Each structure stands twice: as C-alpha cells, then as structure tokens.
Predict the 3D structure of the following.
Amino acid sequence: MTLKVGLTYNLRKQVNIENDVPEDFYAEYDDEETINAIADALKKGGCKVTKIEADEKSYNKLKRLLPDIVFNFAEGLQGESRESHIPAILEMLSIPYTGSGPLTLAIALNKALTHQLLEINGISSPFFQVFNRVDEKIDVKLEFPCIVKPLSEGSSKGIWNSSLIKDERALRGQVSWVIKTYNQPAIVEEFLPGREFTIGLIGNETPTVLPIVEILLDKLPVKASRLYSYEAKWIWDVPENPLEMFRCPADITEELREELEKIAVKTFRVLNCKDVCRIDMRLDKRNGPRVLEVNPIPGLIPDPDAHSCLPEAARVAGFSYDQLICTILWHGLNRHGLDHLFEKRSLIKVH
C-alpha cells in the first residue's frame, strides 16, 4: 500500500505595499523551491504526496483527501495562534500529522508565555516586559540595552537592526512602531551580550540532538547591532552574497556543549515538542545559556547557501536533505503506530 501523505504549507508571496503590511509580512512562509523539495523527498520515500496550502479552503481539502498522515509545516494565516490552526483541524478530522500539537505551537509563538513556562521549570530565559500600550511604566528591573520585538512572530519578523535599544526614548518609539505595525503587543527583553547558538532536535522520547550551530555575530557588518535581525537573516545574508556567519559544529568546550544539549532536550520536553524542533540560545554576561526562542516549525530550506540552520546541522550529522525530511515523517508515523507503512528504510536515520 502506498503511503498517502498530505503536505500542508504557506506559500511566500510578494508584499503589496498598497495593502499596508510590513516588508517582512510573509517572512515565515516558504517559497516554491522548499515546498517542492519536501514533496520530492517524500516521493523518494515512496509516498503519494498531495500539496495543500494552509488557507481557508484547507479544511475541506483535508476532509476530502483523508491522507494517512500530514507532513505539516504551515505557519498559518493570521491570529496569535495561527500555527495551531492546521494541527487543530487535523485533530478534529482524526488525521495523524508530523510535528507539535496546537497547544505547543500556540505557546511557542508567544515569547512571553514561552519564557514564563521555561522559568517555572528551571530553564533560564531573558528578563522581559510586555507592553500593550506605549505609555506603560517601565519595570525597574529592565535594564538598557534591551531588545524590542513583536510578541508573537517568528523568522525574525519585527526584529530589525533598530530593535536594539539604549534609552527610554528609543524604547518607547520602537514599542509604538511594533504595536502599530504588527497589530500586537511588544515584548521588551534584556540584551544578552554573549555568543548565540541554535540547536536542532529530531525525535520524541529521547530526541537526537543535532550538531550545535553558532551564529557568528562578529561577521555582521561593522555598524550593525549584534542581533540576528531580519536584515541579517534575509537581506545581508543571501546565497548570491553570503555572510559566513555560521559555524557547525560550534567551536565550544565539551562542558558547554553538554550544557546546551541538556537545556535543549529539557526545553523540548517541557513544551511537549514532537518530531522536530530548533531551539535558540544565547549566553548572558556570566556566560550562562538562556533560551531565546523555541521553533517547533523550523525552517527547512534545501539550498545549503541559504544558511537554514536545521538542515545545515543535519548535513553535518550525515543526513541528506531527503533523509532529513523522511526521518521527520517516520517519527510522526512512529508516534501514531504507523511506521510500518514507510518502506524506504534507507531514507531513515534514527540514532
């Protein structure tokens, strides 16, 4: 029996300035090259693949198709829980899917809720304050410099070179801009001055931790803020003119590597992540690791020159791109007791 797989996604579009949306409005979405690469990898795994864009028509399409499983990497259309929409629909239709569930996705997209949940479980993250209005009193524990971000965005949306703030006047100006531009609260976090890392994980009960990627912030342009900003991710670092700002595996001590891996696995479990995740961390002024963000729907760009961190770490670990995609699928099938339906064992790398 051929495994019938639905592939849910959101296609990146060109920003229409007449629609009054920010330049980075579609930053989280994927281009056709990535969508087709995932579909091709699944086909090489012996699957019959149907691509379904995660829009208002997706419910009826999924209901008619009733695939054996859905490979989900849809970001959702709108709202503070948009990444949860497809998993919630799939659960309503009793269709198995890869990746984390609605609750995990809703929490992880909200930076404040993520920080709070991690802190309760003994995992350090930056001190923060949420601003629903620009005129709110600044918490006395919030020190400058700090970073202003939209509360519920990913892919560095709303994190610009100007987001690193050094005084109250600039803070209130940036908070005002974020609230108006992204139509949501702003979160202001303390700035962590140390090295930055991202850690990919694949699996479930005992997830495989991929080689750690360090983001070499000193490779940014001289006058740039030491942030992995939207400009750094999507404007300055492009395949035709790459910034060599990634090192994998990271050049770190064995002690630090073990600590980062331990924190990553604990974070994965606390948020109840499934199948795949990428966790961003940065060192504070005492060189202590703190979790910046949890990405249960990490980027899966196939082009090595695009510096997509999880595929880059997977390559260092010995995965081909096809193996990465099929292994994520296999873990989803395995959770649902359907792994026997996947026949191309050579495309599975399970440690």
The first strand starts at residue 3 and ends at 9. The mean pLDDT is 93. The chain is about 30% helix and 20% strand. Residues 124-190 form a domain with the Dna Ligase; domain 1 fold (CATH 3.30.1490).
